[in-house]
Amino acid sequence: MPVSTGLMTKERELLEQARAGDEHAFSALIEPHRADLHAHCYRMLGSLHDADDALQDAMLRAWRGLPRFEGRSATHSWLHRITTNACLDAIARRPKRVLPIDYGPPTDPAAPAGEPLPEHLWVEPYPDSELGLEAGYAAPEARYERREAVELAFIAALQHLPPRQRAVLILREVLGFSARETAQALDTTPASVNSALQRARRVVEERLPERSQQATIRSLGDGAARELVERFITAFEQGDVTSIVAMLADDAEFSMPPYAGWQRGRDAVAGSWLMPEGPPPRLRYAPTQANGQLAVGAYALDAEAGHYLPIALDVLTVRRDSIARVFAFRTPSLFKRFGLPASLS
Q1: Which terminus in the chain has less CB density within 10 A, N or C?
Q2: DSSP character at residue 278
Q3: Long-range Cβ contact pairs of 243-252 (< 8 A, separation 24 or more)
Q4: CA 84 remoteness from chain centre
């Protein structure tokens, strides 16, 4: 992984061809790293769209920087160094992204939702399965699993770090880079890296739940996790509010970006916009996976069109066998990225 004495023979051949101007060789050189780099951009930026832009910028920088890359370090390390700095430049141009819980206090569930706030304010969900994000650790030195490190709680916690601390924590704790490699990537010293890492750890650990979603889902088992999602879907499609409320933890939370309001507590969520209204079958759902978590795409009946159209991507946080959080991202434009159909009949 990050530590390497150089390139493998095939990579070296591709590098030499790319440095001679062969764009196809360059694409072949970076393709094995693309999914990992995209996830890295997402961790840094908290946005799927910003990750797309940052990765494109990084690949252009890598192409232009080929004459200076002689293959003494691993391609993985070289590309992450370039991508990290592309992300740092992107962060400097815009405010940090948050979830509603970090934007303001809980709101009255009976109050109107109000106007949606600009989408650039909010952390976006991430389609880990479609983009090929692998399970497990990136390296023996990593502290967080790959999928654990795209969970919404982790991404939201990262956004509270200063940009360079964010980069240090991701490079060291998620990707398993050494202090020396991280210092080279950020043009600083190993001592500065270690100091920044200690500060970043304190902030992130204060904001993370005791147990990750990866650990929770593993303890449930695939069968129980699927059954939980099926019960969620059935209850909503049948408009069974009693069953929905019974699935919620006592301190459950509901939020609906890009709207700022959110609720905490089973009674508050029971009176929120999450609950279905009107006679069934007004809603349909399709299971998916986002941020290494259970998720469903929600569709509402369009009477004129005669079929169901996307309204929200619900990302679920599970605690034991209850639902602790529902993030209903009201961004139907994301459905295609999650492999969800454009409509349901």
Answers
A1: C
A2: S
A3: 244/274, 244/275, 244/276, 245/269, 245/270, 247/322, 247/323, 248/322, 248/323, 249/319, 249/322, 249/323, 249/324, 251/324, 252/322, 252/323, 252/324, 252/325, 252/326
A4: 16
DSSP strand pairing (322-329 vs 283-290): unpaired
pLDDT at 20 over 60: yes
86: which 2 tokens? 């592309």
Sequence length of the chain is: 345
Q: Which amino acid, residue 174?
A: V
Per-residue CA distances from 213 to 48, 106, 148, 311, 318 (Å): 20, 23, 7, 25, 7
For residue 6, what pLDDT band results from cuts at 50, 70 and 90?
low
The bridge status of strand 248-255 relative to strand 262-264 is antiparallel
Phi, psi of 306 (to 5 degrees): 80, 15
Each residue of 127-149: pLDDT tens digit?
988 788 888 898 889 999 999 99
**In sequence order, which residues have a C-beta less than 8 Å from that of residue 218 and are 6 or more positions away?**
none
Q: How far apart are CA 120 and CA 67, in angstroms?
A: 36
Q: Is 78 helix (H, G, I), strand (E, B) or coil?
A: helix
- 60 versus 8: the higher-pLDDT residue is 60
| Domain range summary for the chain, segments of one domain joined by + | 9-94+125-207, 221-338
Bond prior to 106 in cis (omega within 30° of 0): no
Q: Which tokens is 164 given?
A: 């360079």
* Longest CA pairwise span in the chain (Å): 66
Q: How many other C-beta atoms are found inside a 10 Å radius of the C-beta of residue 106? A: 16
Condensed to tens digits (0 to 9), the pLDDT of residues 244-267 reads 999 999 999 999 999 999 999 999
Vertex 211, ends 209 and 217: CA angle to 5°?
125
Q: Is the pLDDT of residue 70 over 90?
A: no
Tell the CATH topology of 221-338.
Nuclear Transport Factor 2; Chain: A, (3.10.450)
**Tell me: domain 9-94+125-207, CATH 3.30.565.10, correct?**
no
pLDDT computed for residue 2 by the predictor: 45
- More confident call, 183 vs 72: 183
Helix (H), strand (E) at residue 287: strand 283-290
